[in-house]
C-alpha cells in the first residue's frame, strides 16, 4: 500500500496555506502526512501551524528547491507530492495519483493540470495536446494548465507533481532565483535520467490561485527574469541532453530563445523583446560557465 507524503513550501501566506491544508484534509484518500516547508523567520505562518493538527514542519531557508529538499528529507512516504501554498488539490487528487503509481511501476513521476483562477473566476484557456516536452532542438513546452490528453512527458509542473521518494536525490542549488525558473524541469529530468517515465494526467487537478509574493522570488525586474531564465535554461539543457543535442540546444537558445529570455531572432519578430536580449545572453553565458564548473553524472 503506497503512502503519499505531501510537501508544501510556504512563505508569509498563512491564509492561503490554511486553504491548501484544508483541501488536503478533504481528500477521498487521505495523505500519509502533510509537511510544510517553512522559514524560521516566518513567525505568522508558524503561529498558524501551531493550531493545525497533523502537520509536520520542515524548516528551510530561501529558495524553493531547498524547501523541496527539506520536505523530502522529512518525508516517510513512498511517494512525495509537491504543491504550492496558493493551490488547493481537488478531492480525488491523491486517489488518482496513487492509482497511476500502483498500476505502472516504471513511473518515476506523475503530475497534472493546474486550473488557474483570477479571484473567484476560473481563467479559460484553449486546450492543447502537447504538454511538458523538450523538443529535439531544445525548445521547452509547458502548457500544463492547458493539457487535455494523458501522456508521457519530459517535465512536470512544480505546483502539481509527485515522485517516488527514493528517486529524489538531486535538488540543484546552482539554479538562480528564489523560486528558480525551471526548477521543476531540473527535478523532473533528474528523475527521468534514472530510467523512469513521467506521466501527465489532465484529470489530476489542483486549483491554483496565484498569490502575492513577499521576497522578490519571481524576479525584481523583467531584465532580471530574462537573465535568470537564460542561465537556468542553458544549464539544464546542457546537463541533461546528449552530446549532439547539447550543440543544437545551445544554438537554438542563443539564436532564438523564448519569450522570457529572448534572443535575436525572436526579437526580430517581436521588437518589444529587444531590451531583454542582452540580459538573456548574459544569463546564458553564465549558465554555460555554471555547467562547465559543475558537470555531473547526468552529463
Architecture overview:
- It contains 9 helices and 12 strands.
- Helix 6 packs antiparallel against helix 7 (243-255) and helix 6 (222-240) packs parallel to helix 9.
- It has 2 domains: 4-208, Spore Coat Polysaccharide Biosynthesis Protein SpsA, Chain A (Alpha-Beta Complex), CATH 3.90.550.10; 222-293.
- It has helices at residues 14-24, 43-50, 64-74, 93-103, 183-192, 222-240, 243-255, 264-269, 274-293, and strands spanning 4-9, 33-39, 55-60, 79-82, 87-89, 107-118, 121-122, 133-134, 140-141, 151-153, 161-164, 197-208.
- The two termini are 35 Å apart.
- The protein is α/β, with parallel strands linked by helices and 299 residues long.
- Strands 1, 2, 3, 4, 5, 6, 7, 10, 11 and 12 form a 10-stranded mixed sheet that branches. A two-stranded antiparallel sheet has the order 8-9.
Topology:
Elements (H helix, E strand, L loop, with lengths): L3 E6 L4 H11 L8 E7 L3 H8 L4 E6 L3 H11 L4 E4 L4 E3 L3 H11 L3 E12 L2 E2 L10 E2 L5 E2 L9 E3 L7 E4 L18 H10 L4 E12 L13 H19 L2 H13 L8 H6 L4 H20 L6
Parallel strand pairs: 1-2, 1-4, 2-3, 6-12
Antiparallel strand pairs: 4-11, 5-12, 6-7, 6-11, 8-9, 10-12
